[in-house]
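In response to the reviewer comment on reproducibility (Comment 2.3), we provide here a single inverse folding case reported in full, input and output, so that an independent group could reproduce the run without further information from us. The structure tokens appear first.
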């Protein structure tokens, strides 16, 4: 992030001046004031003999009580301003003692002033438009940080086995466009011979429509939704409380539907990735490789045909939607496929420093953090300026290595949300 600005303060000067004056010997103070009027026993320099004056001054300094010496400072020309400065320091300490703990004692030193909440903000239409968010663990962000939201992830939906008495099986499991990261729980709520009625709950706690199996020995019934899709095949009857748990995570999928034993690794998102199912299908048998298609959630082919051959090695597929590495092992047969899930993070995603090179949602500027949040040790709440506001460019905070041209891209993202960044505000 950008470093805090430095500002000059006169407080160290006042403290140093007060300390220096209080440390002056009485003879020096007297000499400063020697043009004033006074009595000879109080001002021995008025004696006619220089030797006697020096002797009497020395004697007075030796026997005069410290309190009287301090009282003598009242005749000093700088007494009034010094006393006023000392009084101001004392009052300041009583008001906010923490402000004095780190005062340098070096005259003219500079103090580091942190970035204040909302310092970047020139105007906002209504503070009620501020948005409550969660800052992702590991982030340390200053007020004015330009942030994005981690909205997507990539992995798979697991194919679970039932926990309970029934022995039916799940198959043909794949993601829909509203799939969420976490556990989908399918629970038998009504037992039926060779069938059953099941409730389905999303990771965010939403109840999806019930799944009702078509009764019949060894029957297979499909369930479709915008979250997850699957089929359940009857075997030993399910009883109330039997559970399937479908886990949506970053784990890479395994090959389905044939004898191939290669694996997918290095799954990453591109800037045009869409939530839902990406199906990687081997269309033609290729020794030590494959002739594959990658079908996106919208049903369109992604990146053309992917033909490769690499005995015992790997090949890499890249596109603006998803990318991956696939390995050779036992040859894939026609029809072998992998089901990749691009899933949605819960609650719209957590915020992180804006990063135009990581395509999980953080590559789009979403807003500006109102106050600093140190989430180094865990997720923490924060507040965003995300709508109808004007912010000052020179007060915004950026992640390391963000270039000027990249910042211009972020300003466009913010402007689309009616957060206008200006060079200066009159």
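Designed residues, in position order:
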């Amino acid at each position: 992030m950008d470093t805090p600005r430095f500002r000059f303060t006169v407080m160290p000067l006042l403290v140093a001046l007060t300390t220096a004056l209080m440390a002056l010997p009485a003879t020096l103070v007297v000499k400063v004031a020697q043009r004033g009027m006074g009595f000879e026993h109080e001002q021995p320099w008025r004696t006619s003999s220089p030797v006697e004056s020096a002797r009497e001054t020395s004697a007075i300094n030796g026997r005069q009580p410290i309190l009287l010496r301090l009282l003598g400072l009242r005749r000093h020309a700088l007494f009034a301003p010094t006393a006023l400065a000392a009084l101001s320091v004392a009052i300041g300490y009583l008001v906010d003692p923490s402000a004095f703990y780190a005062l340098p004692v070096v005259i003219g030193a500079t103090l580091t002033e942190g970035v204040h909440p909302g310092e970047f903000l020139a105007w906002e239409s209504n503070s009620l438009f501020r948005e409550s968010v969660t800052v992702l663990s590991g982030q340390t962000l200053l007020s004015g940080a330009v942030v994005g939201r981690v909205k997507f992830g990539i992995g798979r939906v697991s194919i679970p086995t039932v926990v309970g008495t029934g022995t039916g099986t799940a198959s043909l499991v794949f993601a829909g466009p509203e799939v969420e990261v976490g556990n989908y729980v399918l629970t038998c709520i009504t037992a039926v011979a060779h069938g059953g009625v099941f409730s389905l709950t999303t990771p965010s706690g939403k109840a999806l429509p019930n799944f009702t199996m078509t009764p019949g020995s060894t029957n297979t019934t499909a369930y479709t939704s915008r979250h997850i899709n699957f089929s359940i095949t009857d075997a030993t009857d399910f009883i109330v409380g039997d559970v399937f748990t479908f886990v949506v995570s970053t784990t890479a999928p395994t090959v389905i539907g044939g004898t191939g034993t290669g694996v997918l690794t290095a799954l990453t998102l591109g800037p045009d990735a869409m939530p839902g199912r990406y199906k990687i299908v081997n269309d033609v048998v290729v020794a030590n490789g494959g002739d594959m298609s990658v079908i996106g959630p919208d049903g369109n082919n992604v990146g053309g045909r992917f033909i490769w051959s690499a005995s015992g090695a790997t090949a890499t597929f890249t596109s603006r939607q998803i990318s991956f590495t696939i390995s050779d092992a036992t040859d894939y047969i026609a029809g072998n496929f992998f089901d990749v899930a691009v899933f949605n993070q819960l609650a719209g995603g957590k915020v992180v420093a804006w990063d135009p090179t990581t395509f999980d949602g953080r590559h789009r500027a979403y807003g500006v953090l109102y106050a600093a949040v140190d989430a180094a040790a865990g997720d923490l709440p924060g507040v965003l300026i995300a709508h109808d506001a004007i912010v000052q460019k020179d007060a915004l905070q950026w992640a390391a290595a963000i270039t000027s041209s990249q910042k211009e891209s972020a300003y466009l993202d913010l402007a689309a949300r009616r957060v206008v960044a200006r060079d200066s505000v009159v």
